[in-house]
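Tokens as discussed.
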């Protein structure tokens, strides 16, 4: 595995810049008040968009590498990951007291699982030389930041007495 220092500067800067809404959204939820309401709406939507972006990267890589015969499984999996992120957002909105399953917590869980799964899938792609070696440490750091932010947001939402 290469080091993060081997990565070109632009993907590193853009990647870490993309963590700002994750961290900001999680902190916004912890602050409470009107900020928390905005963060509760914005963070899962942003997470779903980024998850779709990552899955779209796999779709595009498959089309470039195997343009004559793209593997159906790869394309279906990429679409499935994007749809999982999309499904997580309305689950959080539809969550109501009295429903036996906490749909909001389920939505957070789907987003977290989506990022972990996408990382593992990208890790395999790096071994297959679909992506460059420097991508693995970058993806690991970015995925860790996103997952920690989403897990913290879920904790804050699940624990109504928590606030900063």
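Sequence:
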């Amino acid at each position: 595995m290469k080091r993060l220092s081997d990565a070109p500067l632009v993907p590193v800067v853009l990647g870490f810049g993309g963590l700002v809404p994750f961290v900001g959204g999680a902190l916004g939820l912890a602050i409470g008040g009107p900020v928390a309401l905005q963060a509760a709406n914005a963070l899962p939507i942003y997470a779903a968009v980024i998850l779709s972006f990552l899955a779209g990267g796999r779709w595009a890589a498959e089309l470039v590498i195997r343009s004559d015969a793209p593997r159906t499984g790869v394309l279906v999996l990429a679409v499935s990951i994007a749809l999982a992120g999309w499904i997580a957002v309305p689950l959080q909105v539809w969550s109501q007291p009295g429903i036996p399953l906490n749909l909001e917590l389920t939505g957070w869980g789907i987003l977290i699982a989506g990022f972990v799964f996408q990382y593992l899938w990208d890790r395999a792609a790096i071994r297959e030389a679909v992506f460059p070696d420097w991508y693995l440490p970058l993806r690991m750091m970015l995925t860790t930041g996103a997952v920690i932010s989403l897990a913290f947001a879920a904790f804050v939402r699940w624990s109504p007495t928590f606030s900063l």
